[in-house]
Amino acid sequence: MLQLDLRDKVVFVFDGEHAVGEEIIKLFSEAGAKVLFLGKSNLDEDSLVLKYKEDASSFEVGSFNLKDNSFLKVIQDQIQVDIIINNMEAMTGKDVMDISPEEWENGLFTNLHIPFQLLKMILPLMKNQEEGAVINISSTSAIDGGDGDVLYAASKSALESMNKALSRELGPYNIRVNGLSVGSIPNDKDVESDLHSIPLNRFATPTDIANAALFLSTPMAGYISGQTILVDGGKTLL
Amino acid sequence: MGKQKTVLVIGGAAGIGKDVVINRANKGDQVVFTDLNNKAGNALVEEIASSGKNVTFLQHDVSSWENTKEIVEKTVNKYGKIDILIHSAGITIQKPFDEITYDTWKKTFSVNLTGLFYAVKAIIPEMLENKRGNIVIIGSGSAITGTGGGVHYAASKGGAFGLMRAIAKKYSHFGIRINIVAPRVIETEMLNQLYPTESSREKLLSKIPVNKIGTLSDTTNAINFLASEESDYIQGQVLLLDGGRTYLT
Ligand SMILES: NC(=O)c1ccc[n+]([C@@H]2O[C@H](COP(=O)([O-])OP(=O)(O)OC[C@H]3O[C@@H](n4cnc5c(N)ncnc54)[C@H](O)[C@@H]3O)[C@@H](O)[C@H]2O)c1
């Protein structure tokens, strides 16, 4: 039986204001879930803005500090999170020699430090519920080096290793931890010729990713944990 | 194994890096090694000097960009080039997830991943100038299995995989090779702390198909192989050094 019903579930999508995040929110809302997400406007350690979306309306819940427990205060009426989707993404598009220490540090902050600290804050709630799904979105860059952006590739492979370690620790609480390794979503630089390396002969769309995330979030993926699933049109065949 | 090489070993005052320093010095290579631990670094210089060989030690905090840049400059000033970089510096602050503080997480990354980024960032221009270079990173099986060290350790070591592949992608054409040796358990001080009793050792051994805990010769051999011309066609790879444990048990 299909089990894509997420009524009564709360999903926390870290980055809700970019193409992929928006699509995830749309799809999960359609499946009945309530959605929490971070406002993209300011990624500041001291004040991250949390937003909430139910049915068609969304509003700001409040802001919190990454370093203390103010997150729990902010979500006090909403102390349930069933699904976490980490789709934070910073890239430099630069050569290793041109990435400054500050750019590197900012990149790690967005890609790894914020997600880690959010997981630390939310996982105790999930543990109490004895059920949950965590999805970290990575990239085929972790495997093939992408366009050579060390910050991006390193952040993504770090997440894939984190999935494995976390899945071991959280399995006993019935929390599944998985990843999606996403192939290229076209940007300005991508050209038709790049398609040769993709057997399905098209680039990924945000919907491809949201669909896979939805699957991993439901009981249909109830025995899948510690995995990173390639959503890349068949490009990476290892 | 060919002629004398200039080898920079980062994190070379103890454990896996130290064994490589001794081995390379005995081979007659020009060895510069760095470490945060000044005392252990100087002691190793003495130890090697007593067997009639010369190595250079520079104190170094890998989490400082300025410091790392300076290390590479000094090495190049002394020997004119760097043929091989062996990156072994790393820390393990073993903790269950609940007990990993934000500071511990960031600290682990600043040494294990940012330290590696700085080293590569500093050395690539030098290697480009020579139109060749070989980088061997000491990674960890934890990145593959998620065991050992904890979530922060596994993640920080996992970061090395993507970094290595992005460098391979970009610089293979320029004569630069880069690979990872990923050990699981190796006989070091750290292992004695993790497995202090006879029975814990036996339990560990029972999980390793080749019935042996890895030795420092095992890591040094693997590192030397990847750093040599004998492995010229190996690029962007992770060599898992685990006695068969990961896939066969
Ligand atoms: N020993 C094992 O079983 C094992 C297994 C898997 C991976 N590793 C990896 O191998 C590498 C070497 O490990 P080891 O067992 O030889 O450990 P070790 O502790 O004996 O040696 C690591 C060295 O790095 C140095 N170091 C730490 N922080 C530094 C900093 N900020 N700047 C400069 N130097 C610094 C230490 O002083 C030490 O001399 C590490 O990267 C570790 O993650 C070891």
From TrEMBL, chain B:
Entry keywords, A to Z: Oxidoreductase
Keyword Cytoplasm: no
Gene3D superfamilies per record: NAD(P)-binding Rossmann-like Domain
InterPro entries named among the record's database cross-references: NAD(P)-bd_dom_sf, Sc_DH/Rdtase_CS, SDR_DHRS6-like, SDR_fam
Top-level taxon: Bacteria
SUPFAM superfamilies tied to this protein: NAD(P)-binding Rossmann-fold domains
UniProt entry tagged with the keyword Transport: no
Family, similarity comment: Belongs to the short-chain dehydrogenases/reductases (SDR) family.
Protein name, as recorded: Short-chain dehydrogenase
